[in-house]
Write a structure and sequence with these properties.
- By secondary structure, the chain is an alpha+beta fold.
- It has one domain.
- 15% of the residues lie in helices and 36% in strands.
- It has one helix and three strands.
Length: 66
């Protein structure tokens, strides 16, 4: 079973998924149209999890407002 890590920081989500034996296939950053972000950081928030198969996921993350 894949843990629901929506709402967690990327760093925490990585640790939880690793402990569960789930591999992160990719991380996609979502942002407003005029904001260009090319690198994600561990403090970004997971907003969605796309399950690719039983052991692989894609995470959609967003940079939180500071």
């Amino acid at each position: 079973m894949i843990p629901d890590v929506a709402g967690y920081t990327l760093g925490n989500a990585k640790a939880i998924l690793k402990d569960a034996g789930v591999k992160i296939h990719s991380v996609v950053i979502t942002s407003p149209p005029r904001e260009k972000i090319f690198e994600c950081q561990d403090y970004f928030r997971v907003v969605k999890i796309n399950t690719l198969d039983n052991k692989n996921v894609e995470l959609i993350v967003v940079k939180p407002l500071l």
